[in-house]
Each structure stands twice: as C-alpha cells, then as structure tokens.
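As agreed, record passed on underneath.
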Amino acid sequence: MNPTELVDHALDLLLRKDMKSFAGLFAEDGVLEFPFAAPGAPQRVDGRAAIEEYLRGYPDMLDVREVAEKVVHRTEDPEVVIVEMAVDGVVVATATPYRMRYIAVLTVRDGEVRRYRDYWSPAAAAEIMGGATTFAGGSDV
C-alpha cells in the first residue's frame, strides 16, 4: 500500500471507529507524535501496542462522521505525505458538533506507518470538548 492509499484506508477506519485496525497500520515500532500537545499531555506515543491503547477510547469521546477538505500532498521523499483535512463529528458526552482542522505528516515504509506527526490545536479541542483537554491520555487525532 502506497502512502496515499494508506491515508485513505486510515481515514476509512477512523470513520468506522475501528481504532484497533487504525493502530494496526503502524509498524511495530511506529511513532505517533503531537508537536502541539497541551501541557501535561504526551507529545509522543511509541510502538503499535501503545498507540492501540492510546486510541482505544477515542470513539467514546468523538463520533467522527466525515473527513472533509482532504488534500494529500506528495513530497520529494516517496515515503512521506502531508495531509490537510477537516474532521466533522459530534462530541459524544454533550452532542456538541465538532469540527477540527488537521495537518498530518506521515512516513510510510513497506505499507506501514513509521511516523505520524499530528498537528492540531489543543485549545480549539478543549473549547469543543467543553473544557476537557485530554482523551486517552492527552491529545486528539
């Protein structure tokens, strides 16, 4: 699976709320990074098993219903893509509509995610989530 196909598959899994399979796209030693993580939240999750555990409760917090405005940019490095997107859904606890914009930088080798850097706004997420700045330990996807 090339990086663009992997992005499409990953977003489909997110929409299906299949976080176990989403985490399964990562290499055994893959890394999930949040460069803009809120204070006290993890900036990095190492390894597929830890990523799976980190994402386990995501669907209980956010009901992601649509990925909009998705643009995948190829880079000079064939293993790296940059994804711009907006994610629409509902905050489960409050039924509040949710829209967040993301930029993700993915490194994909041999059909597995080696590194996923997720750039999003913790302040915007906290506002949408009613002041809650964390889920599953601190960040958003």
